[in-house]
Every structure is written in C-alpha cells, then in structure tokens.
Specification:
By secondary structure, this protein is an alpha+beta fold. The protein has one domain. 23% of the residues lie in helices and 28% in strands. The protein is built from 3 helices and 8 strands; from the N terminus they run E-E-E-E-H-E-H-E-E-H-E. The relative contact order is 0.26.
C-alpha cells in the first residue's frame, strides 16, 4: 500500500504531556520530538477542540496529564530538518488515520530524530504552544 503524506501547507497538532515537560526547568523537554513515528493530528481533518478531546481520552492516565498542545506546519518542519547542512534530516508527515482518531498522522524521518533536532523543532513551536486546563 502506498503511503500518503501531508502537504507542506498543512498544520498538525502535537500533545504535550507530563512526560514531555521538565517541571524543574519549566520547559518542554526534547523527548517531545525524539525518535521516529511521532504522533500528531491533522487540523484539516478535525477541529482543535475535537483533537484535544481525543488526546484527553487517549493520553490522560493516573500518572500522565495533558498539559498543552503545540501546532506546527509540515512545510516548516521539513525546512527545520534541513537547516544544518552537516546533519540533514528528511522529515515528512505520513497520514495514518486510526479508528479512534481519523486525524492521526506521524512525523517520520529517514533516521531517528536526535535531541539536537528535537530542540530546534521545539524552538520553532514555542509561540504555538497552547496550555490546557484540566477537564
């Protein structure tokens, strides 16, 4: 089966949970975008409110809270992966709907996203972080 990818103009949302936040330093930690196959949800499929409700159902557990969301543009994400000419990452966002989240997609790379690249992505999304209240 052929994979489908988000266009460069599409915006996606990433959940920021307790595990992604360093409470001592009061900042998002690099685990938010490290690895490969990083789950996001597409704002072209569901509204932000619908996506937040899905995140709350899927991610909130006794030891984990949904603290915030961040919005990122897929084209900007791709550019961020190519900023360091000595360490280029080929990033894309693959459309991967799930039964309980039709907007689901995954950030994929030609290799594992490093701590350094994750920090650069976090710098880019700092102004697009929306803190959430418990509900």
């Amino acid at each position: 089966m052929t994979s489908e990818y988000c266009s460069d103009s599409e915006n996606v949302v990433r959940a920021i949970c307790t595990a992604h936040y360093d409470d001592a330093k009061k900042r998002i930690n690099s685990s938010l975008f490290r690895g490969n196959g990083i789950s996001v949800s597409r704002l072209s499929v569901l509204s932000k409110e619908e996506i937040i409700n899905i995140f709350r159902k899927q991610l909130v557990k006794p030891n984990s809270r949904l603290l915030a969301i961040c919005t990122l543009n897929t084209g900007d994400l791709k550019k961020t992966g190519k900023e360091d000419p000595q360490n280029i990452f080929d990033l894309s966002v693959e459309i991967k709907p799930e039964p309980d989240n039709p907007a689901h997609a995954e950030i994929i790379s030609d290799r594992e996203i490093t701590k350094g690249l994750s920090k650069r992505i976090i710098e880019r999304v700092q102004n697009a972080v929306e803190e959430l209240t418990d509900e």
